[in-house]
Amino acid sequence: MKRFKTISGEELINKELAEIPFVVKDLIPIGLTLLAGSAKVGKSWLALWLAVQIAKGEEVWGYESVKYTTLYLAYEDNEIRIQNRLLDICDDAPKNVYFCTEVSKLGGDLEARIDSFILEHRDTKLIIIDTLQTIRNVTESNYSNDYSDLTLLKNIADRYKIAIILIHHFRKQKDGDVFNQITGSTGLQGAVDNMFTLSSSKRGERMATLNCIGRDIEQREIELERNEDNVWIKQSDSYSESSVLEDNFVKAIEKFMSDRTSYCGTPTELSSLLSEISDGKFSNRVISKYMKKLSKELEKRLIMGDCRRSNGKRIVELVKISVDSDAKTGVSEYPSLSALS
What is the pLDDT of residue 278? Predict the structure, then answer.
């Protein structure tokens, strides 16, 4: 008899799982991202700059990136246009950012060429396709066609654990929800992991808003201004508010553990204790979430934390790390939280 392979909620919430990998921390995770906007708003300039920044391993608006090989499929451009744009946005293009203007089609040889490129450049983490329309064979945009086409790209991103940014256009009709301006059916939105929209109040304006929403990122609005070199510069970022909350939590835990070697109690008890020493108020659910999400930040401050169920109730464990560094290997030994149980 065939059965579903299931996992209980209790098992899942306590299971140690690897974090979602990001190409740009907190902004661009692995998976398929749709970047849409109106014509000539500056999508390609933005995508080109992202490809160069990640190839260099440099920050993107304050978000950390790691140096990876990047591939830009510039199917609406030619080499001279790309060269001119590169000369605008950087002094010297890195050798690990690659470009191709020869169009390949989905369901044709595009997938095979991506496979070959990744096999030749194993550290590839970002592929930008400019634009969706240039790689499609179908002329009718309906839910089935849109979902099927983008699923092909998502499968590649998932298989190789890379980020694919697919550039697309807005329809002419305005809408109160900027994501509803994306050309095509809701099949596009259903197939992708993340959606970015770049929009301005009028064509040619150098101010624009990047709206970001996705399965593995916090929803945010980033206000941008395009400078004289056609680089989009961040003016403000709504995500900073949630970052402040996370930073406050880490600081509160650090302060709480300053005169302790260990702690074991419920999230409710810890919430009450933190409120006495911190300006922030952290609910039970926030504590449980942050203990998992911010564990590496706590480790940087020599604190190990865990949140699990014990005897039918949720328990938070904290312990100060005593680092015994081996002078030869530099390896540090961390104590086990099980000793607190």
Answer: 83
Mean pLDDT of 13-37: 92
Asked if residue 103 lies in contact with residue 135, where contact means CB atoms within 8 angstroms, the answer is: yes
pLDDT tens digits, 278-332:
876 788 888 888 888 888 899 999 999 988 888 878 899 999 987 654 434 444 4
Q: Is 228 exposed, middle or buried (0-12, 13-18, 19+ CB in 10 A)?
A: exposed
For the whole model, what pTM was predicted? Answer: 0.78
326 exposed, middle or buried (CB, 10 Å; 0-12, 13-18, 19+)? exposed
- Give Cα separations from 320 to 14, 173, 202, 267 (angstroms): 22, 57, 55, 18
Residue 166: Cβ-neighbour burial (10 angstroms; 0-12, 13-18, 19+)? buried
Q: Residue 51, SS3?
A: helix
The secondary structure of 79-137 as a DSSP string is HHHHHHHHHHH-SS--TTEEEE-S---TTTTHHHHHHHHHHH-TTEEEEEEE-HHHH--
Instruction: Please state, in angstroms and rounded to a whole number, the distance separating the CA atoms of residues 268 and 316.
Output: 10
Cβ 309 vs Cβ 341: under 8 Å: no
Question: What are the backbone dihedrals phi and psi of residue 97, each rounded to the nearest 5 degrees, phi first?
Answer: -110, 125
